[in-house]
Specification:
This protein is mostly helical. It folds into two domains: 115 residues, no CATH class; 55 residues. It is built from ten helices and no strands. α1 runs antiparallel to α2, α2 runs parallel beside α4 and α9 packs antiparallel against α10.
Length: 230
């Protein structure tokens, strides 16, 4: 249960690109209004838009470096620098959703790359809090998943189950079914560890059907591995 499972990175990247393009265009329009209308206040607003673009870009580049870690299994110090810069910029801008997402990825760096749950857990908790304020159910679900992972590794199986089930409910609500199946892999292991063999088998059956329907082949393999250990 490592790594941000079922995050839909491709979709997040497309959304990020659209958001950045919109902000750059707004900065251009603000510049034109300042030039032609003589409104100096427009330049300050343009600065804010470009700071937001910088935050978006830092977050996107940090996510790409995180993905590269899974291929190279080598820490790139630029990942943490980029993600922390994104979080700072979003905080200054008052962008609660952006800060929540950036802090989630900072937490992923510490948990996944460095294996440091002691540092990661408070970041995931803060990310979840900010995402809840912003109504961002996708990041809430991600933070809960990784809090569940930390609890599982710490042997706190009831807490791990609670967080993964909460993450799964959110993923169902937003239609991220591959993410539901991914969470259920962890829930299978937890059920088996708690001696709930029938629950584990039922979860494996449901998760397998969901993952196959989504074409999530990697998750299908994970489910088969989990089922073999029940």
């Amino acid at each position: 249960m490592t790594g941000p499972g079922g995050t839909g990175n491709g979709e997040l990247d497309r959304m990020g690109e659209m958001r950045a393009e919109g902000r750059i265009e707004r900065a251009r329009l603000l510049y034109e209004r300042a030039i032609y209308a003589g409104d100096d206040g427009e330049s300050s607003e343009a600065d804010r838009e470009l700071d937001a673009v910088e935050a978006d870009l830092a977050l996107a580049r940090g996510r790409i470096l995180h993905l590269r870690f899974f291929d190279e299994r080598r820490e790139d110090p630029r990942e943490l620098e980029l993600l922390e810069r994104a979080a700072r910029l979003y905080r200054v801008l008052g962008d609660v959703a952006g800060e929540g997402e950036a802090l989630f990825w900072v937490g992923c760096f510490h948990q996944v790359v460095r294996g440091d749950d002691a540092t990661a857990v408070p970041l995931f908790e803060r990310s979840h809090e900010l995402a809840a304020q912003a109504g961002d159910r996708a990041i809430q679900a991600e933070a809960l998943r990784h809090l569940g992972t930390a609890a599982h590794f710490a042997g706190r199986l009831d807490a791990a189950r609670e967080r993964l089930e909460a993450s799964t409910r959110l993923r169902r609500e937003i239609g991220l079914l591959a993410g539901v199946a991914s969470n259920q892999v962890g829930l299978i292991y937890i059920a088996a560890a708690q001696g709930r063999r029938e629950d584990a088998l039922a979860l494996a059956e449901e998760a397998h059907a969901t993952a196959e329907a989504c074409g999530a082949k990697r998750i299908v393999r994970q489910i088969e591995e989990a089922r073999a250990r029940i």
